[in-house]
Structures are given as structure tokens and as C-alpha cells.
Fold this protein.
Amino acid sequence: MARPSPDDRPKVKITRARLQQAMGLFTYMRPYRWRFFAALVCIALSAFSTSLFPLFLGKMIDAAGGHATTPAPSAFSGNMVPGLGARLKSANWSLNFCLLLIFLQLGVQTIFSFLRVYLLTEVGERSLANMRKDVFSRLLTMPMSFFNEKRVGELANRISSDLSYIQDALSFTLAEFLRGIFTLLIGLAFIFWINAKLALVMLSVVPLLAILAVIFGRFIRKLAKRAQDQLAESGNIVNDAFHGITVVKAFTHEYEEVNRYSKSVHEVVDTAITNARYRGAFISFMVFSLFGTIAFVMWYGARLVQSGQLSIGLLTMFVIFSVLVGGTFAGFADLFSQLQKTLGATESIRDILRETGEPVTLAHIETDPAFRLHGAVRFDNVVFHYPSRPDVPVLRGLSLTASPGQQVALVGPSGAGKTTIASLLLQFYQPDSGRILFDDKDATSFPLSQLRHQLAYVPQDVILFGGTIKENIAYGRPGASDEEIEAAAVKANAHLFIAGFPEGYDTLVGERGIQLSGGQRQRIAIARAILKNPAILILDEATSALDSESEQLVQDALDNLMRGRTSFAIAHRLSTIRNADLIAVIDKGAVIESGSHASLMAHNGLYKKLNEMQFDFNISFSDENT
């Protein structure tokens, strides 16, 4: 049964434009260019030293046939005089001298092979490290609209898989391609040097077999790909059934799911068997053709030996060189396939590097006194729609003002635009029209990193990073001391539960904080915001998913956090924002009511209706539980 291949990078057509784009990435090799050139020299010398092995082996066979004489010094005098090839071909060396030359050749080849692998790996790894850093940095600077359109898995795959293809190209594929070229040229030169007629016989067959192998190989790979796709589809059936096991059992659909999976698996089997028939026929044909060609070449060479035109040693050299040339031809097909995949990976990486990111600072940030915020915020007739939904307006002329230190609550029905206001405050998006002002200055007049550095965000669904509690709190201000981290945790009502863990602040939170409860994650996020000490705080339904006990602890922590700074609290649970200085009721992208809780309850508006609905619901829910 075919298995899904991890090597599923799609191939692209090799064109001049794509090759030029790929060459652009070689700029990352510029700091290491001398090592790269040294590696190329080692590749050439390694290929040349490898080609000497059949020569010395053939001479050893001739020496074993009783033709050994004292070594001819002129054969290796180093002077490329006319007739050197003929003199080398007719030279008779002793067995011991041939063995000495072979071990000398192997030693030289070992050195050059080591150097080419080491140098190319070093160049490839160092170049790719710089490339990975640039790609990751560019992705981090992308606007939120970019991440809304891309899947996280796709972006992670580009950093890991696509860059790995390029790494393999620099460290392996390029080396093998150049080595294959050198081996092919040297091998062809030697077989023509040994006997031109025999070389023409061999070359009349081998290229034809190589072309047939490439064509038939593509057909077989298509069948294998179809089997992989079908197996992946059967895997999707398994995932769907297990993820929705509650529904499957509730509807008693076990039998239907088994039938669906069985049908999918049998399709995989049928395709795999068909593939096996063609693959078996192809392998049988290639074995017959390859060994038939070798037999025919050996037959023709043996006749030349009988006629005295060729020695057994030269025939041995020819066969070995023919194997090298044939293997190189066959290897070029795989190298060509790898090149196609590498060009596809190169295109995706170049697309990222060409993207225009946000003007954020990729360095440690300290608040610039010239851009220090005091906390005044004003939305001035802001109109906005998301780039992915240009036909759906979200904010329609929204105006809202917050004074320094004022606690502003944003309430309203779902889809009214409350979370969008938070995104605009953080400058994740820019208004289509209207302005957002901080301390009576347009938001665009602030450096983006300086502005965000003075804002803190506590979302409903807190995301913690897979490190320790201390590291997650310190994310609010890298470099903070242990005392400062603990003080922030105390204010966030988090110190007691943290101290209760055996590892304390060094407790690992697990992936996305899975080891902690929702209330614990919220309090760590609040401690992180307290440590940051922002001028403006944004809370997006920070207590809506908590039980009563956790909600009280988190609410107390939020009160500590909001004290003395401007805050915007988005809330569905209206009981949590009754003490806010200003409650802004948002509906259909605009502020329709604003004021204190008492003033809004005195009018028969949307806020009063929302309060009454929640009050009635809570009474009904309490009665049902009773």
C-alpha cells in the first residue's frame, strides 16, 4: 500500500525567469563566497581523483596478466606532450606500483570529498540561517490582514519545508549536479580515450535507456501520487470520524463510517496494484536492457581484445567508466526533479521577502520621551471595513473620546464593531476615512513600535507561549527582575497559585498554556500587562469565559491593572463594567449611547434593554439550577 510522502513540494517548470529569481537568493552566500569557490574546486578535484580509480585498476589487471614492467616515469612527468595518452595507454606498471597509486588516489579523493561536503554544508547552513532569520522577520512585520488570509500551518511550512529544499539545494543538490557534470565529462573523455568505436556503441544505447527511464518514471510517479492522494482521503475520513465521534455514536452511524472508510481503502489498493504492474514491467525492462547492453558492450570489447586492439585492463576501465557515465545520466533525472521542487520553494520564499511589511522596529524598544503617551484617545468619524470584506462596512462614522486615566466600557450586540475598535487602537488596521488621535496627535505621526509599546492587550482567549510562567510574565517587559515579575503577579492575584506549584515561577505552562486553567491563564496575562506598565489598556471580554470564583479574582486583578491608566474594556457581561467612567454603546458601527451606568439606565435605550435581557436570563438560569 502506498504511503503519503513527506516530499510533496509541487514541481514547477524550469524557466529562465525562475532561474534568475533563484540566483537572487545566492546573495546570502556572498559573505561565504570564498568557501563556496573552494568547495567547487574540491568538487572538481574529487570527481577527477575518482576517475583515476578505474585507470589504476585497469593497469593492475594488465599487470596481473604478466605485462608488468618497471614504471615509466615519463607517463607521470606532468608534461602534456603529444602522444601522452598513447604512452599512458601502453605503459606497463607493476602490481605494487598500481596498488600504491590506488591508495594514493583514494587518500586524495578522501580529502577532497571531506572538504567539499564540509565546506558546502557550512556555506549552506550559515546562508540558510540568515535566510530563515530574514523570512521569519519579514513574516513578523506583516500586517494583520496578511495573517487573516494565510494559514499558520502554511507559513510555518514555508520556514521549515521550503527553506529545507533550498538548504538541500545548496548543500547537496548543487554539489551532486556539479560533481555529475565533472564526472560525465571526465568519464566520456576516458571512454573515448580507451576506444572510440566501443564508446560510440555504448553511447548509442545508454542515452536511449536513460530517456525511456525518465518518461516511464514520470508515469509511475503519477500513479504513486494518485495512491497517496487516495490514502490521504481515507485519513481524512478517520479524522472526521474520530473528531466527530459524539455525533457518529449519537446517530448510530458506525456502520456507514466503516463502509465509507472501506470503500476509500479499496480504491487505494486498486491504484497501488495497478502501479505495481507498471512498476514491475518497467523494472524488468530496465534490468533486461541494462544487462543486455553491458553484455553487448562486453561482447564487442572481447572481440577487440581477441584482435589485439584492446587489453583486458583497458576493457575493465571502459566498463567501469561506462557504469559511472550511465549512473550519472540516471542521477540527472532525480537532480532535475529536485531542481524543479527547489525552484518552487524559491518562488514562495522570494514572494515573502518581496512583501511590504509594517514599519516596526526589529530591535529592543524603550519609550521615546518625544512620543510618550498620556492616555487621551479620540476616534474622529472613523469609517472602516476589513480588506477581505470590502463590501461589508464595520464602522460607520464612529466617534468616541477617552480622557487620560478614564475607564471606557464598550458594549453592544455581537458584530457591532467592538473588537474592531480594539484592532484599530492597536493599529492592526488603518481607517478607510476619519482619524484616530492619541493625545490630540494623529496615530500615523507616531512610530508604530513606539505606539504599540505603550499599549497592552488582554484578550478573552489568552495565548501563552510554551515556556515557564516567569517567561510568560516577563514577555510584558523583557529583562525585568524576578522581584518585578513577582510584584506583577501579586497585583494580578496570580502569586498564590503560582507559589503553590512545586516549580513555582519555573513551572512549564505547556503548549498554549494548556497546563493551566482559564482563570490562571487570564491572571498571568494580566500580570504580563501590569509588568508592561502601559499608558493605554485594552481588555477584550477578559472575564466572559470564567466561572464565578475565577471571575472575581480576575476582576480584582483587572481593577488593579486599570487603576491610573486609560482603559477600553469590551464586555458582554454588563455587570462587570457598571463602575466604568464612560459606557459607550456600539450598534451597527457607531456609538448610539454613552454615559455612566446610572444615566444610561435612566433612558429607555439599547443599554437598558441589554441589561434587562441579561437580568432576566440570569434569573431564569438560576431558577432552572434550583
